[in-house]
Amino acid sequence: MKERKQKFRFILRTVLICVVVSIALLQPGCDGKRDRRTESTGDKSVLEFAGDIAITRLEAPAFESLASDDRIVAYYLSKAILAGRNISYDQLHPKHLESIDFLEDISLNIDYGAPDYIVNPFLEYLKLLWVHNGFYNLGTLRKVKSPITSRELDQLMYLALSNSGGQLGTVTDINFKRFWIVKHLFAQGVDTVLFSPDFPGHIEPDKDPVPNFYQNISTQEARQFQHQYPFNSRLCTQNDKIVELVYRAGDETWSAGPYAEQISAVIVHLERARPYLESNRVAVVDHLIDHFTTGDPGSYLKALEIQRERSASVDFILGFHDKRYDPLRLKGLWTGLLFISDKDAQEKVTTIKTLLPQMLERLPAALHEMFSCYNGEIIAAQLITGIGNTAPLCPDIYEDPPLKSDKGDDNRRIIFTNVVNARTNTLVEISDAMLISTEEVGIQAAQELAFVSTAISALLDYPDKEINPVQRGEKTYHRVVLENVLERIALFMLLLDEELPGSGLIEGTWTANDVFDLFCRSYVRLLKSSEQAYYLPEYLSVRLIGGYLHEALGTFVEEDLDGCYEQASIDSDLSNEALNNLAQQVVKLLSDGDDDEIDRFVMEYCTKPDPIIDEDRGRRQTERYLPYGEAFVLPQIRADFNPMGGIKSIFLEFPSTLSEQMYEFRDK
User: Distances from the Cα of 85 to the Cαs of 38, 102, 575, 591, 665, in angstroms?
Assistant: First the structure.
């Protein structure tokens, strides 16, 4: 009897799968097989979109000037970085790897048989998971929302099972995975944040999906434990005792730990790079190999110390480096960065650093007292490879080390000049195509101005400055927004300082209208973007300044006869006066205002009427979609080998879409 029931259940399950797949095949848009995983927008800066993120290509022109040995170093270091890609996925959430692999398996088997209105949102969701390195936006710590329903996931899942010939897994296995995804990722109000940045130093395993640094360990237990491997281990319980599982490859003396397979592959590529390294990087790699083999934290710290004594043409960051995503600020997230020095940009940074002290003295008193010159090293470089929290959402400025409490005399900031250029290209393209039509904007001039602005931002310092918004401490979100407002106002005024425009930093000079043009493009773009931008202080500060200027100056963009919008002429004296008044109000609020006053002030100016759209055309244009941020398709370093196994040439290739890049990473 039991055997007959099991046979009946198997037949019923098979029939249901066939019915689901048959229904899908009858849906419109399913009349032929085509690869929807790599659709793009054509030959433009923006390759494709992932929800409210524009995907653009990251060029690296400095690579062409590298010597042959430096190219070989870059090749092997890039492979070392990519070999550890899955480590950061697993560290951020214990279900990341399994669930994302499962969703990728589905995406590879739905090229035909399902309607576009289901497939396209699913692929968009997968792209968002790639962009954010998992289930959570690491800038806001909020869960990435799914645009599809659990029923639509079921349809795609069983279709993929059928199309793959059963290779997706057993029905029982895929249903277990489906159950977890629906319960934790699709459900509203469940696991909504990775952890709360408002309460650092506290973990609640029963409430928050704490990153995979602790397993069933309380805050008190983690703090009382004597950590021998503070940043490169996981705490768990074994036989009622707390133990450290050390991330290491191991050898005949040291036992292997978590991620031993990936770390061993990292070591292999570091050893292959070693013969071609600059002399000041050989000892760095030797210490890293020892650290990755034995887990010795001291070896890693020695590698960092040597690395920061002197720069190199091809440089990198590799290891359990980023402590911001541990609520207790102890454990490091695996991070990999490969970058190439940008000598021309470095000279400009030196020029700006020389001019900045006197420029700061000319700021209004409300700002002059707050800002100082950054004393650490500033490196101008072009990013090639990045994993962890640094790519595909690449930062303009990377704070090294990322955690504020780790900073000392040897800290540094890295400006990724090619990220700045690519982001500027995207901003101009999107604003030109969708909202603003000014006189033709010179891309090179816009890039140069954006770089100068970024360099000044990197060189500015004040006591509570936090480039990375994850670690807010006890500050409320809107206090962080107001601090961003002050920095942006200072940038405005410094860009229009009497010395800077004629200093030779760009070809020709620039005016207040040029500065306001870039700001206006960012402002309009954010007014038309999704609510996700609200959760990022750097974006909300732009909206606040725009709303304030709209009230103080009136409309600072105007409609032309063709129905597009152009920037109106800006009176620099009036704009400086308005910005100075805003700065004084913000300084007073930060020093004397309570949280309620600050909240009211922020929301007052962030909800001002749109100065771009008139009432007659408002409905149509407010429905227009604009992405608020960018993610990047990074260059891939390739090698041609001769018949004897030697390297003939090293060169760059560029994936055509984010999907192509991520599926290739999956196969490595």
Answer: 22, 17, 47, 43, 8
Q: What is the pTM of this model?
A: 0.88
Two structure tokens written together for 186: 């699709």
DSSP string of 349-399?
HHHHHHHHHHHHHTS-HHHHTT-EE--SEEEEEEEEEEETTSSSS--SEEE
Helix (H) or strand (E) holding 416: strand 412-416
pLDDT digits (tens, 9 = 90+) for 593-629: 888 999 899 988 876 434 334 334 333 333 345 788 8
Distance CA 663, CA 655 (A): 10
Q: Distance between CA 579 and CA 558 in Å, rounded? A: 21
44: helix, coil or strand? coil
Domain ranges within the chain, ordered by starting residue = 12-41+94-192, 334-631
583 — phi, psi (to 5°)?
-60, -40
Instruction: Single out the residue of 222, 249, 244, 258 nearest to residue 88, CA to CA.
Output: 258
Nearest to 313 by CA among 335, 342, 291: 342
As a whole number of angstroms, the distance between CA 123 and CA 159 comes to 15
Q: Write the single-letter amino acid at 431.
A: S
For β-strands 333-341 and 314-322, DSSP reports them as antiparallel
Q: How far is 347 from 353, CA to CA, in rounded Å?
A: 10
C-alpha dist (Å) from residue 634 to 42, 107, 144, 221, 652: 17, 22, 22, 41, 10
Closest among 173, 177, 214, 223 to 195, alpha carbons compared: 214
72 and 650 Cβ atoms separated by less than 8 Å: yes
Average pLDDT over residues 163-181: 90
What is the average pLDDT across 45-71? 92
Estimate the share of the chain in helix, then strand, then coil, as percent rounded to the nearest 5. Answer: 50, 15, 35
Pairing type for strands 241-246 and 233-238 reads antiparallel
DSSP state of 143: B
Q: How far is CA 592 from CA 371, 463, 476, 479, in A?
A: 19, 17, 15, 12
From CA 426, how far away is CA 258, in angstroms rounded?
40
CB-based contacts of 173: which residues, under 8 Å, 6+ apart? Answer: none
Give the sheet arrangement for strand 53-57, strand by strand.
Answer: 46-50, 53-57, 629-633
Q: What angle do CA 129, 263, 57 make, to 5 degrees?
A: 40
- Rounded Cα–Cα distance for residues 434 and 370 (Å): 38
At 538-558, the pLDDT tens digits run: 888 888 998 888 788 776 656
Q: Identify the CA nearest to 567 among candidates 631, 621, 611.
A: 611
3-state class (DSSP) for residue 237: strand
**667 alpha carbon, distance to own chain's centre:** 22
Residue pair 341/315 in contact by the 8 Å Cβ criterion? yes
* Preceding omega of 463 cis (within 30 degrees of 0): no
Torsions phi, psi for 563 (to 5 deg): 85, 10
